[in-house]
Amino acid sequence: MRRKLSVETTRSLSSIDIPYSQEIFGYQTQACRKALCLAGSIFSLGILPLVFYWRPAWHVWAHCVPCSLQEADIVLLRTTDEFQTFSWKKVMWIYLSPLNSAFGLTPHHPLITNEDYIINRAIRKPDLKVRCIKVQKIRYVWDNLEGQFQKIGSLEDWLTSAKIHVKFGSGLTREEQEIRRLICGPNTIDVEITPIWKLLIKEVLNPFYIFQLFSVCLWFSEDYKEYAFAIILMSIISIALTIYDLRKQSVKLHHLVESHNSITVSVYGRKAGVQDLESHFLVPGDLLILTGNKVQMPCDAVLIDGSCVVDEGMLTGESIPVTKTPLPKTDSSVPWKKQSEADYKRHVLFCGTEVIQAKGACTGTARAVVLQTGFNTAKGDLVRSILYPKPMNFKLYRDAVRFLLCLVGTATIGMIYTLCVYVLSGEPPEEVVKKALDVITIAVPPALPAALTTGIIYAQRRLQKRGIFCISPQRINVCGQLNLICFDKTGTLTRDGLDLWGVVPSDRNSFQEVHSFASGKALPWGPLCAAMASCHSLVFLDGTIQGDPLDLKMFEATTWEMDSSGDDFHIKGVPAHAMVVKPRKTASQVPVEGIAILHQFPFSSALQRMTVIVQEMGGDQLVFMKGAPEKVASFCQPETVPTSFVGELQIYTMQGFRVIALAYKKLESDHHITALTREKVETDLIFLGFMILENRLKEETKPVLEELISAWIRTVMITGDNLQTAITVARKSGMVSENEKVILIEANEPSGSSSASISWKLVEEKQHIVYGNQDNYINIREEVPGNDREGRYHFALSGKSFQIICQHFSSLLPKILINGTIFARMSPGQKSSLVEEFQKLDYFVGMCGDGANDCGALKMAHVGISLSEQEASVASPFTSKTPNIECVPHLIKEGRAALVTSFCMFKYMALYSMIQYVGVLLLYWETNSLSNYQFLFQDLAITTLIGITMSLNGAYPKLVPFRPAGRLISPPLLLSVIVNILLSLVMHIVGFFLVQRQPWYSLEMHSVCTVKNESISELSISPTAPEKNESNNAFTSFENTTIWFLGTINCIMVALIFSKGKPFRQPTYKNYVFVLVLVIQLSVCLFILFADIPELYRRLDLLCTPVLWRVYVVIMLSSNFFASLVVEEAIIENRALWMVIKRCFGYQSKSQYRIWQRVLAKDPSWPPLNQTSYCDMPGCDRGVSYSNPVFESNEEQL
């Protein structure tokens, strides 16, 4: 399928490599508009360019006018997701005129007149130039024939296998190579190490740092230097840590790809022959010559001749050699990727993988045609997924922006109030402006980002101590909302290694006695032994046998040896350098010298089998097959399959064993190997028996799953293994408990006149066996007791059924997913699709895998946790060094603690700013304010220390069965903030007006201090004049002193109230540093309040008041503290009360999965057991859809 940018003024860009589609708009730059914008930039002192930097669309709208894409010199791109993010790109020109002199390239040259290929259609004639844009490292060229932008750097998908062999099988001419190099660009995955100055500028231009710069400038103008320096220091540390982290990631990514760009390869040219080239000169269509040496693939290429053994660890996370076969040359008109039922990837050598062995068809060399170059390749796609990650829409961050906007709105009201008060009182204009601007810096705390970041940093450090490493710290908060975890099975829930338990031979239509390898007896010679020795994809490299662990265990059990035939090897029909397996010299009663492996049809997850053609030395040619039992049996002669096949299979799969079936047949001697197709070989086989492998649960699996399930976190298994094995592992691990039922869902595609169907059958453990056409021969209970529907149930289905349901039963999909627990035989693409479908139901999805085939799902999930440290997991947000699932509950606990910490900090910073805001506005009424030292004490000595230490609470060790709130704008949180603001407002107003009504209050007094043994009437009165030189008259007043003490001590008390402990964080008293800080701060404040130290009061611009008034201040603060504590504990944190309120008001969660749960609970006909539905029946309407933004949850949980 061609992916393109279309010609009209607005269309969509949809590339399979871009995680979200984009709309594109054409614009033309106008000189007069540019001049006006330049003048605006100068007169606004650089503010206008800054706004354009933050809003790219405004930049384009200001400088350009709309036009068609054909005439555009600027294109504006807009993502079609919920974020609607804009970016703009300049249209560039590629000139082919240099080739005119070198090769005599003219508009009528035969090379560029063939318009079947995008490259030729992109060349504008007669001036020989190409328009292009670059989006996320991918180049798009303008197709002059179709009038649209199209991706370049890949061979066209419509090419047939015959066309590839004919057109590119002899290589490209030098002229074709040069044209393609110019248009497609170099074959490089170039990730530059971003210079520090670029990272610095990008970070500093963040809107909040600009606000901090404004605040600092204002404070310097008011001589508030100390806190300004403190904010500068905090900002420098924050920026430095961010830049260090970004730089580290940039260097890591650069090192990951740098080796790709400097590889020397052999390329065959149509006229030039074989020549060595630097890999960055490769173009799509080049013919690569693969020698026997190890080489890292610098591009994606399709093998057209010979065979290769490839290590795909870079892409799959498992360093297991994979055999690649050549693309057959067929006359079919079907595109080459779709011509076979097998996966086309078995012919493709992917970029970044290592070719560890390459063999020619006869004595020649292996050859491959370059498919894709640069960032179009598999490795390029992985790198781009890291460079341009999928945006994460977590409501906490959107609510944070709204929260800040509310503070800005509050600050605006305060500014208007300040302007009115100071203008009416006749203050100088510059003083009025300063006071008004001060209100903004008071209402919007500049230290908020630093305070929020500290909680994340502490959580990250705690995770690192547990061996869990994070490359996306913001995702830690998202971990706190996870309510569904998907697990891979093999290597994640179960142990990595498979142990060969035994074999069950079959002879004359019946199973024989089990041969156990634990006894130490060798397997007697026969077709079964020969199959185990030769039916594998193992390779002999550097004196060691390498390959799939399953194959390795199987081969080792035979005690045979492996070798490669030499040049002097002469047996009819056996090529030189063929793989040969031989019995050890110690082995007896083996009538053959060895077996040569002539040809392999490699294992494919789509086909669920592998087949080999072998030659017994001095004997017959044989075919051996191994694979999924149900698949192998379908290729065997029915009379050779034992009648107890289903029952025998059931016995072992029910116990959690992995079962592999084996089969064979003799080939006619007149067959030529290369002429045999897979379809001809895989017929009329003789069934040989079962091979039983044991895959044990990891010790940590069961307790971890029990912990998650007890916390009401859904657990789901997504595996590529057998469905019955998956069901057994689910039961053994506790994912499905003993009293819960498993319902097997089987869907079938339309065939002939029959529609697509879906059946529902209850899996029974101990009843008689009923043969059916089930994919995995699962025992089905025919009669269902009436009470089964009352209990809990789980759906189990295969990847094939999941695909059919998605296509033909889309309206049933959400109903199935609500109780879907076991998904087997799932391909990597299906794993990703399933995760996305769960997200559409508003689940917060975590994915835990070992890196093998899980990369797509790890990237798709809200939180991906890789248990592998392979390069493939570099895109996973979290990587655990401990290869078991114990990391999952730790991550959820830390996520919940970090999320609660974020809310605590938001609430505290809001209260702190509002306390200052209320106090300052009250003082403004008297044209008074707090002094710099008073602000400094509150900002630095109180709030900054609290911000740093409040976040130190660790996670609570137990997972509770509910999550913390995921939104700032939830009723309990809003009520908490509003109530505390009102309490503080009342306290400040009471203190402000009450102090003015005291008998000792006088505007002329500068201090009122009691002298020993003197009555209140004999107060020592110090007039203003004598202290004029020692104290700041602009601030000293009784109102100022009262407001400052009330505000400062209130900030300490609010911190204690808002610091949450159980059930998500450790109790506050265990945060020793925080408690110590609060005790010291409160002690210092009370000391200042009650100590009569004139010098201290003078420094802080305070007035001495009678002891009785100081007691009143303490009483007001205590009343406020207890009122706030009662509200917080009895109402805000009272979960039971909020549940009652919800029920009273009829509130129900708006999350899609909650809605479906309520619908299904009322449906007596669900689940439809022992029924078969068809897609043309009611309820199977394909038009029914459900869709919500992937990264959103509407649930407001307490």
Structure in a nutshell:
The chain is an alpha+beta fold and about 1200 residues long. About 40% of the residues lie in helices and about 20% in strands. It contains 37 helices and 46 strands.
Describe the structure.
With 1198 residues, the chain is α+β, with helices and mostly antiparallel strands. Helix content is 40%, strand content 20%. α2 crosses α3 and α14 (395-424) runs antiparallel to α15 (429-443). The longest helix has 39 residues, at 887-925. Mean pLDDT is 80; it is low at 1-19, 766-790, 1010-1032 and 1181-1198.
List keywords for this structure.
1198 residues; alpha+beta; twelve-stranded mixed sheet; ten-stranded antiparallel sheet; 37 helices; globular; disordered N terminus
Q: What's the arrangement of secondary structure elements?
A:
Layout: E1 4-5, E2 10-13, E3 22-29, H1 31-43, H2 47-54, H3 56-63, E4 64-66, E5 74-79, E6 86-90, E7 92-95, H4 97-103, H5 110-113, H6 118-122, E8 129-135, E9 138-143, E10 148-151, H7 161-168, H8 174-184, H9 196-204, H10 207-221, H11 225-258, E11 264-269, E12 273-278, E13 287-290, E14 295-296, E15 300-305, E16 307-311, H12 313-316, E17 321-324, E18 348-349, E19 354-359, E20 366-372, H13 378-387, H14 395-424, H15 429-443, H16 448-465, E21 468-470, H17 475-479, E22 484-487, E23 499-507, E24 510-511, E25 515-516, H18 527-534, E26 539-541, E27 544-546, H19 549-558, E28 560-564, E29 579-583, E30 595-604, E31 609-616, E32 621-627, H20 629-634, H21 645-654, E33 657-666, H22 678-681, E34 686-694, H23 701-710, E35 714-718, H24 723-733, E36 741-748, E37 757-763, E38 780-781, E39 793-798, H25 799-808, H26 813-819, E40 820-824, H27 828-840, E41 845-849, H28 855-860, E42 863-866, E43 878-880, H29 887-925, H30 932-949, H31 971-996, E44 1005-1009, E45 1020-1023, H32 1038-1058, H33 1072-1090, H34 1094-1099, H35 1107-1132, ...
Parallel strand pairs: 22-35, 22-41, 35-40, 36-39, 39-40, 41-42, 42-43
Antiparallel strand pairs: 1-10, 2-3, 3-4, 3-5, 5-6, 7-8, 8-9, 9-10, 11-12, 11-13, 13-20, 14-19, 15-18, 15-20, 16-17, 16-19, 21-43, 23-24, 23-25, 23-34, 26-27, 28-29, 29-30, 30-31, 31-32, 32-33, 33-34, 36-37, 37-38, 37-46, 44-45
EC number: 7.2.2.-
Family: Belongs to the cation transport ATPase (P-type) (TC 3.A.3) family. Type V subfamily.
GO biological process, one term: intracellular calcium ion homeostasis
